[in-house]
């Protein structure tokens, strides 16, 4: 995991506590976010924290009629440097008045990139995992997720027809592309601190642009052209970064066949969502994969698993993704060394393999995994 860390320095006062919003939301979010909080608070000589507990989620919507109260938005915008979001139980069917709070938070806080490292760790829990060290950057504000949908009746057939608008802008595409190339350079700098034989990725940094412009020539065409221009217009800065393209369908195929071929992957919102969840299968479980929703002035860590209502309240949810997401939060707030300690502690627990939650084939509780991480800190 350490080779996948993301470096983005926000201006934070070293003496003042970091004010972090905690939004457990639904299901196991109420178990894994407190677990991540414990690990943050246990860092020796680490930053001080001022945690504020905030509401959001489908269960909150069922009680109050709103999924994202204004006080949560205002507190995050005006008081916090970052946040941790747990999980949301968004229904698969339409519920009048409800929309996903995590999607809304990304828009309110201008968190324009979802940054997801996926790296293999030698562990008895994953005997057949692929060897990879990949970073997926998903544009976070546009594509089909603008939720502009409508339903009509076809006068010719009398049957319903549903439409969804898709938005791809040069502005959003350029921001995501710039982050991808910057992260490629940063990852290479961090790799070079290790002996070559200890690195998974041993080539020049590389950015893979995912699109389907052979079919969606206008929208994906604009995405492709804009991201390519980030490198082409800045040869001095990004000349040392290789650039390639991959159609989204062949990207999925190739990612499962040879994930070791990818370094940094950048994709529009929908494609990135699918690719990043699929990539989690390559390292064993959604329960170990972190993410960060990143903007220029705010970062929100978010484990990528769902709310898992079937195990909520049983004390067996996997806290690793949430702990790693808290590490990404620290990375983006400039506390690199403390984030590294968290990653190394998690990797040590996975490598040992004796204390694992049931989703990884073990019999341990959430609390036992947290205690093991704290021991390795």
Based on the model shown, name its key terms.
377 residues; alpha/beta; Isopropylmalate Dehydrogenase; 2 domains; 10-stranded mixed sheet; two-stranded antiparallel sheet; 37% helix; globular; disordered N terminus
Task: Tell me what you see in this structure.
- This protein has 377 residues and is α/β, with parallel strands linked by helices.
- It folds into two domains: 1-111 and 304-377, Isopropylmalate Dehydrogenase, CATH 3.40.718.10; 130-283, Isopropylmalate Dehydrogenase (3-Layer(aba) Sandwich).
- The chain is built from twelve helices and twelve strands.
- It has helices spanning 29-41, 58-64, 70-79, 101-108, 170-191, 219-232, 235-238, 248-257, 269-280, 320-332, 336-352, 366-376, and strands at residues 18-25, 49-53, 82-87, 113-119, 133-139, 149-153, 160-164, 206-211, 242-247, 264-267, 292-294, 299-301.
- Strand 6 and strand 7 (160-164) form a beta hairpin.
- Helix 1 (29-41) packs across helix 10 (320-332), helix 8 (248-257) runs parallel beside helix 9 (269-280) and helix 11 packs across helix 12.
How do the strands line up in the largest sheet?
2-1-3-12-11-4-5-10-8-9
Mean pLDDT: 91
Order of helices and strands: EHEHHEHEEEEHEHHEHEHEEHHH
Class from secondary-structure proportions: alpha/beta
Instruction: Quote the distance from N terminus to C terminus.
Output: 15 Å
Radius of gyration: 20 Å
The domain tally reads 2
- Name the CATH class of the largest domain: Alpha Beta
Classified in CATH, the superfamily of the largest domain is Isopropylmalate Dehydrogenase
And the CATH topology of the largest domain? Isopropylmalate Dehydrogenase
Low-confidence regions: 1-13
Strand residues, percent: 15-25%
Given the structure, what is the number of helices?
12
Q: Which outline best applies?
A: globular
The main pleated sheet reads as: 10 strands, mixed
At CATH level 2, the architecture of the largest domain is 3-Layer(aba) Sandwich
Give me the count of strands.
Answer: 12
